[in-house]
Request: fold
Amino acid sequence: MSASGGDRWLDHPANIEKLWRGICIVCGILLLLDLFYSKHAWFSFEEIIGFYAFFGFVAFCFVVLAGKRLRSVLMRGEDYYDE
Reply:
């Protein structure tokens, strides 16, 4: 139960399933649209279908994993600002 007293729309598993399917459909459509425009690439591997989607996913994973490592270096204790 949420703070406002009612259920939120993401509290229902059916809505999460609809959201997941919607995201997959949009990603599939965008991947298909990648076939229908001419790319002006500097390198030949940039012309591979879905290259930028794959590159973006790998970059996102790298940022998340690097953030986990940096957290252990930069994190302070809970009582850091206490007297």
In short: The two ends are 37 Å apart (CA to CA). The chain has a mean pLDDT of 87. The chain is about 55% helix and 0% strand.
